[in-house]
Design brief:
The protein is mostly helical. It is built from nine helices and no strands. About 80% of the residues lie in helices and about 0% in strands. It is elongated.
Length: about 230
């Protein structure tokens, strides 16, 4: 049980580093999903392509391509959900052997904080991984909903209803992708949280590096440049 006495075992630098991790996680997530109109994120650009995809879908009588593509996306969510569960199990196993971690840390850093300190640090990683797992599972289910909508959508010649189905399918697809991206960001910051085992300064550094990497991929990557290029 985490109490005020246990929290007192952490230095102000530890708490500052943890707050930095959480703030950067929230800030980059909000920025990716709420970019400015002049500088859209890669995720937002892809959302428009997903809408175009669903509009093209209703023009196809045979939708094997669409169903296979959604199936591939679902496989991705399943893979990462399984990976999250394995990582959670491994971290919980480490929590059960916190004394061994404390022994290794003492050899490396010449410090010997109580086992509860290591357990709390590992539980932070578990919390981030659990968030990632829940996002991946929900993303998988939303892609399933989208698949049903693709199967139910009438062809474009059914005026007035086909585009409505395409819009609904697109929004479900976008919501699934958004949840998947949230899961990935949680995993990225869970990896950054591992640095806390080495100290507060490594945690803060890892959190900042993770923030920069995600920001670059969303706002300054080569793939984003390609997506923004005008079609000749």
């Amino acid at each position: 049980m985490i109490s005020l006495e246990n929290l007192a075992l952490f230095t102000p630098m530890d708490l500052a580093a943890l707050i930095t991790l959480i703030l950067l996680w929230c800030i980059i997530g909000w920025r990716v999903e709420h970019p400015s109109a002049k500088a859209p994120s890669t995720s937002m650009i892809m959302s428009e392509y997903r809408r175009q995809w669903m509009l093209q879908m209703i023009a196809r009588e045979v939708r094997i391509f669409d169903s296979q593509t959604i199936s591939t996306l679902r496989q991705g969510t399943s893979f990462f959900a399984s990976t999250s569960v394995i990582a959670i199990g491994g971290t919980l196993a480490l929590i059960g052997n916190a004394d061994q971690i404390a022994g290794v840390a003492k050899d490396l850093t010449e410090t010997s904080p109580p086992e509860i300190v290591w357990e709390i640090k590992l539980m932070t990683i578990v919390a981030l991984l659990t968030s990632a797992f829940l996002k991946f599972v929900w993303s998988n289910r939303l892609f399933g909903y989208c698949s049903v909508m693709v199967g139910a959508a009438p062809n474009r010649h059914a005026a007035g209803t086909s585009e409505s189905f395409a819009h609904k399918a697109a929004e479900l697809n976008i919501a699934a992708a958004r949840s998947f991206n949230r899961g990935l960001r949680a995993m990225y910051f869970a990896l950054a949280a591992v640095a806390w085992l080495a100290g507060a300064a490594p945690l803060m550094g890892a959190a900042i590096i993770t923030f920069i990497v995600i920001w670059r991929r969303e706002f300054a990557s080569q793939s984003r440049k390609v997506l923004l290029e005008e079609t000749p």
